[in-house]
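User: My collaborator sent over this chain with a note saying "see what the structure looks like." That's all I know about it. Can you take a look?
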Amino acid sequence: MLESKVEIKKNVLSLSGRAPMHENPGYFKYTQEYLPAGYFDREKALANLKKETLKEQKIIKGTRFASLLKIKNTDGTIVNTDTTLGVKNATEAIIYVAVATSFTGFDKSPSIDGVAEPIAKKELNNAFTKSYDKLKAAHIADHQKFYNRVTLDLGKTTAPDLPTDERLLRYADGKEDKNLEILYFNYGRYLLISSSRTIGVPANLQGLWNPYLNPPWSSNYTMNINLEENYWLAENTNLSEMHQSLLSFIKNLSVTGKVTAETFYGVKSGWAAAHNSDIWAMTNPVGQFGKEDPMWACWPMAGAWLSTHIWEHYIFTKNQDYLKNEGYPLMKGAAEFCMGWLVEDKKGNLITAPSTSPENQYKLADGFVGATMYGGTADLAMIRECFDKTIKVAKILNIDAEFVKKMEADLANLHPYQIGKKGNLQEWYFDWDDNDPKHRHQSHLFGLFPGDHITPLKTPDLAEASKKTLEIKGDETTGWSKGWRINLWARLWDGNRAYKMFRELLRYVDPDGKKTETPRRGGGTYPNLFDAHPPFQIDGNFGGTAAVAEMLVQSDENEIRLLPALPDAWSEGSVKGICARGGFEIEMNWNNKKPEKVIVSSKNGGKTTLIYGDKNQEVVLKKGEKKEINF
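Assistant: Without extra context I'll predict from the sequence alone. Here is the result:
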């Protein structure tokens, strides 16, 4: 095997000086090609082996792939050539396919440490021993144990039962179709179940559904929104296991990100990640050797954002073992980098410098357009959320008291939010205009969603400024951005505005390349329900599904708010299996926009307060207990 030969070379070259060949009998067969009889000279061997290794690297360098096929036929004859495989004169043929790569981990070489064909062969042989019926049954059982946890009903519908593309076209014309809305919600959960099952390899920009050798954005992980949006539905739509792909990827990022923090940013504690990554957990800034734009290439806040997913996983599951053994060290590392990256401004407040607001630009009165600055609101919003949640976790675990004091001091000294002359939440340190007032990114609203330190109750002025920002930006934007804005409107408890944008997210978009007399382009939904950025990006699907759950149930570690952003169009309905923070699960039905029966169950036992409008009720449950509440 080629790998073993290369391994032998590595061992040979690790020896020093001159050594009798008989002391290394395992290497004799290979090294005698290069060495004098009986003895070898390391330097000469090195020169000769280097030449051949370079030749072999041209063959084995990179990731290897294997796709194996096998046909099971009940009659007829299997036929094959050196390029084809088929069956002749058969009434039935079952084709078994196994695909594998030599990727074995972010810190492993797919050229040396991994194999593809043996894995595919093993999987193919295992599958071939099972009948079609058994394989199908196993697949359905595996899928439905996750999928069937949640059911949604939005009330009576008069919409006809049409093919999906026709339903989308009809819906785009303003017609009612509650079952299409339910289908879209369910579809998002299906997509995550299907594309987030591998540890350390989360769902990328296209999930599993990339047909290109050179895909848009390289099917990578864009971490200034898109990767995170993929997982907004993981916990609240009862798919916590799917979150593991991302959480384990964060652990990988922390390893490479420690090097990035020190070598790129001069911060010796903690870890950082930039806006783009891949399955090898790349964390450094990217670009074509300085030719790319800093508005996206020079952004080190991905670690701060991603660390909040660890809190979300904990607060939904209450898994303290995960928090102590794995989650908290990652959160602490992200917070340590932020502490090392902050500097004081002239007022003595802590800011980031340099700073950018992902992919957006400001415009000065003299016409200057720029991206870099200091004290960007988005950076500080993410750091606020990172510090707040890391402090909470440390107190839950009762550890790191001194570190907590430092975080609390830095949190209190962060440059405060500013409300601009238009009543908007300022995106920039100064009250500058946006170069594009309707820009798709709204990163400075992070504290409203996915963060939770801006709310209509706790911070009404900031919530109102966030609302003004969204009004200025308008509703016309790309698919994933619509998904984010629907969640933001839901957090502002404006169900009708959220629903308006949800309908726009489901606006029919022609498939890429399709030629029609009246083409339908832009952000929305393709006929197969994939999100149109355009082109296809799966995060819009995930953001849309998460938003439906957010319109029905919102929660924090102390309370669960029912129907906080229910639109008039969904005046009656029911949902079962939606999860709430604190380890609770909700089943409820509502009529005339009011909950009638609510069943709360607890996975771990605990206390929460149920809230609907101005009514609230405290609920205390034991592990596995459920209770019916009538409003």
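A starting point for your reply to your collaborator: The CA atoms of residues 571 and 593 lie 5 Å apart.
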